[in-house]
Specification:
rod-shaped, alpha+beta, 29% helix, 6 helices, 9-stranded antiparallel sheet
Length: 303
């Protein structure tokens, strides 16, 4: 039935009844006085209170040993000290960024960017040098008009490599703007991996459509690579950063000459606080469960 706690009056009454039984052989038929005016009655009043208080502690002790009701440090004691299941600590948010800048420019590790809506800051996890190698895309500048233009590219971790893109000019393609348009058309029509657009300065932006991939770009003909798009991972500089939706991290906070832009091509999860008692208890119960069910296994792996 669990622990039954008696009140002060009930404890005192039980003491009085026990005393009457124990002292009856010495009383010669007289009744033992246990009221408030008697010595024994006053003693029972003093002793009964701490006896009840001690009894009230018992359920708390039992609860502290129960994973379903333990809280705070006691829950850590149960799950970590006994079962070696550690509470998850606070963690900073991480995200993938796409940096944009002039070829040869270096952005040092720890350079800061920010979310223009939430104000959260992120620092790059590694140093990045803008190049035509290990890049998601490039900006191509038209140097001369005329001749054959060839874009030779490869994509890392692809089993089959794409063919070169050849650009044939028409008789009316006599300006840099028209050549840029022709290159855009050629890239979008000849490649299923790349996307091309024309910039305001008549340069051509060519990127790998799936921004999770990087590759290498080489050119032949009267054009050159002037800028590139380099991926890098970054970590929030605070433990309470909010989520960042696509293309919200666009603020450069570390000034670097030649670093022109930044964005996050994918959703970024928020940072996580110290695991709550509820989540910690739930994860611990999943790990201690012996049902072996597939759903518990999936949930435990996710947690």
């Amino acid at each position: 039935r669990g622990v039954i706690i008696q009140g002060i009056d009930e404890v005192r009454s039980n003491m009085a009844q026990e005393a009457k039984i124990r002292f009856s052989p010495q009383l010669n038929g007289k009744e033992l006085r246990v009221d408030d005016s008697s010595v024994l009655g006053r003693l029972f009043a003093i002793v009964s209170k701490p006896a009840v208080q001690n009894a009230e502690i018992l359920p708390l002790i039992l609860q502290a040993m129960d994973i379903n009701s333990a809280e705070g440090q006691q829950l850590d004691n149960l799950l970590w000290n006994i079962h070696r299941i550690k509470r998850l600590s606070a963690s900073q948010a991480t995200t993938m960024l796409m940096l944009y800048g002039d070829i040869g420019t270096t952005v040092s590790k720890g350079s800061e960017v920010g979310n223009y809506i939430t104000g959260d800051s992120y620092a790059t996890d590694s140093t990045v040098t803008f190049s035509n190698l290990n890049t998601n895309g490039v900006d191509i500048q038209i140097d001369t008009v005329g001749g054959l233009y060839v874009i030779d590219y490869s994509i890392d971790n692809k089993l089959s490599q794409p063919a070169k893109i050849s650009v044939q000019l028409g008789v009316n393609d006599t300006t840099i703007a028209s050549v840029a348009d022709r290159i855009v058309d050629a890239v979008n029509s000849q490649s299923g991996y790349l996307t091309a657009t024309k910039n305001n300065d008549n340069s051509v932006k060519v990127i790998i459509t799936d921004q999770a991939y990087v590759g290498s770009f080489n050119l032949q003909g009267g054009m050159s690579i002037v800028r590139s798009y380099m991926p890098v991972y970054a970590t929030s500089t605070t433990y309470n950063s909010s989520e960042s939706f696509e293309n919200q991290i666009t603020v450069i906070r570390s000034s670097v000459l030649g670093w022109r832009g930044v964005t996050n091509p994918y959703y970024s999860f928020p940072s996580t606080p110290v695991e709550s008692d509820e989540d910690y208890r739930y994860r611990g119960k999943l790990k201690l469960s012996y049902t072996g069910g597939k759903y518990n296994s999936i949930i435990m792996a996710l947690k």
